[in-house]
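# nightly structure sweep
# worker-07 picked up a monomer target from the shared queue
# config: single-sequence mode, recycle default, output format = C-alpha cells
# input follows
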Amino acid sequence: MITIYQIFGFILAFTVSLVSTPFVIKFAKRFGFVDIPNYRKVHKDPKPLIGGLSIVLGATAGILYLKPFYNYLVPVMLGGFIILVIGLIDDKYNLTPKWKMLGQLIAALIVVFSGVKINFIIIPFTGERIELGIFSYIIAIIWIIAITNAINLIDGLDGLSAGISAIALSSILVLSIMNGQMFVISITVILIGSILGFLPYNFHPAKIFLGDTGALFLGYCIAVISILGLYKSVTIFSLGLPIIALAVPIFDTMFAILRRILNKQKISTADKAHLHHRLLAMGYSHRATVMIIYAIGASFGLSAILFTRGTLWFSLLIIVALCILFQVLAELIGLIGNHKPLLTVLSKLTNSRTPLKDKNN
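# output follows
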C-alpha cells in the first residue's frame, strides 16, 4: 500500500520537475545544449536538450523528503550521478559509443559490486536452488547497461521515452506494492512524479527534449529498480517480469541489433527503422505513433502484472504468446527489413491446409 508520505513525495517530485523545466530550457539554450536536426531526426528546428535535469531535480527533491532507507542507496545514487554526467557531456559534445559505454560500465560496476544483484535462482517444479556465483555479477552488469541503452534508443519522438519509462515504472510500482517492497515503492513513485512533471513540456510539440541526460538516467534507474524488485532470489520465470514490463524498448533494441547484423552494418550504426520510425512511415501522425507505442507498453505492463497472478503454465503461456505477438508485429511493420521468417512459416502452413478444389467441378 502507498503511504500518505509517498503520495506527498510524488506531488513534490512532480511539482519540482514541472516548475524547474522552464529554467532548464533557458539554461540549455544559453549554454548550447541544443539538438540540431539531421536526416534521421523527426524535428525540423533546433531544440533544447538536457530535459532530464528537470527529472533529476524532481527525483532529488522527492528523495530528500522521503529519505528512503536502503543499504545500497549511496552506490545507486553514485552510479546515477555518473550516468547523469555522461549524458550531459554527450548532449554537449557527442561522445563516441566507446566512451559512453565506459561510463555506463563504471556505474554498473559500482552498483553491482555493492550488492545489487540476484544471487541465485529457483528452478520451477523441482524447487532446486542454483547459486549464480560470478554469473550474478555478469548478468546484473549486462542488464543495467542493456536497459540503460534501450530506453535511450527509443528516444526518437516527443514524449516517447519519458512516457514509456513512466508506464514501465508504473508496472514495477504495482508489482512492488503487491510484494510490499517499500523502498522500491518510494523510488518508483518519485520517478513517476518527476517524469509526469516533465511530460507537459516534452509531449508533441516538444519545448525541450529528454536528451541523453534524461534517457540514460531513466534507463539506469529502471534497470536498477527492476533488480531491486526481484531482490536476491527468483524463479526462472520471475526473471521475465522486468523483461515483459520493459518489452517495448527491449524488443525494439533487439530487432535493431538483428536488423543491422542482417544488413552487415555495425551495431552502433544509426538508422530510421525503429518502431516509431516504421509507424511514422506507415502514415501515422507524430502523436498517434506515440500513443500507439504507449498502448503497446501498457499492454505489456498489464501482462507483467497478470504474469504474477497465474499458475506456472499460465505464466509460460504469456511469455510465449508475447514473444510471438511482438515478432509478428515486427515483421508486419518492417522492424527487420524484408526478413519475415515467422510470417513466411505461417503463410506456408495456411496454404498447405487450404482444401483442394474438386477436380470434377
